[in-house]
Design a protein that fits this description.
The chain is an alpha/beta fold. 29% of the residues lie in helices and 25% in strands. It has five helices and eight strands; from the N terminus they run E-H-E-H-H-E-E-H-E-H-E-E-E. The chain has helices at residues 32-43, 52-68, 75-83, 108-117, 136-144; strands at 3-10, 47-51, 85-89, 101-104, 129-134, 150-155, 176-183, 189-195. Helix 2 (52-68) crosses helix 3.
Length: 196
């Protein structure tokens, strides 16, 4: 069975976006150690889940890099983002206009559990996974239904007065187990939690 992994940037006080989804609080000048960590995390999955609101910007961003900037440092990672199988959860779209992308229009619990039951592509048995990047509303729905197996929270050294969170829809307290914590040279800290 595949694990669903969340990779998300957060502030020290738990916001994943400003009140209107602003991301200007994120550190963009990553050092090689965090780039290597994210690359290894990405290599452990074969499927990307996205909410509809995030899908167009995310897919278009990486596709543009592949089409226009093949010689840049970002190209190998961008190529993975374009080539990986992507599932966009939506109630409003009727068809996908993106490469390697399908739509999931049913119940989120049923759709995610079906994906978790699939075999992994080109990964050793037991290592294939699914990763979700966002957005906040979609991730909140996954958190509420306790569908995320591993949380990779990249804590930026910033705080916001108010903003978007992914834990505001919990029906009750959620207990998680801290399995790794890493400080990167750029000042971001990774906190990895697993379901108990």
């Amino acid at each position: 069975m595949k694990k669903l992994k969340l990779q998300m940037q957060t502030t020290i006080n738990g916001f994943v976006g400003g009140p209107n989804g602003e991301l200007d609080w994120m550190m963009w000048d990553w050092t090689d150690d965090i780039k290597d960590y994210v690359t290894n995390l990405t290599d452990s999955v074969d499927t990307i889940l996205l909410g509809r609101k995030m899908a167009d910007g995310f897919i278009t961003h990486w596709s543009d890099i592949v089409k226009n900037k093949q010689g840049t440092e970002e190209y190998p990672f961008a190529k993975k983002m374009v080539d990986y199988h992507k599932v966009v959860f939506t109630k409003t779209l009727d068809k996908s206009t993106w490469d390697n992308t399908v739509l999931a229009k049913g119940n989120v619990v049923e759709e995610v559990n079906k994906l978790k039951q699939q075999d992994g592509n080109d990964l050793p048995a037991g290592q294939a996974g699914i990763i979700v990047y966002g957005g906040a509303e979609f991730v909140s729905a996954l958190v509420k239904e306790n569908l995320i197996d591993e949380y990779y929270l990249f804590v930026n050294p910033t705080a916001l007065k108010t903003g978007l969170t992914i834990f505001n829809t919990l029906p009750e307290m959620m207990k998680l187990k801290l399995t790794n914590s890493t400080t990167f040279k750029c000042g971001i800290n990774l906190l990895k939690y697993e379901k108990m």
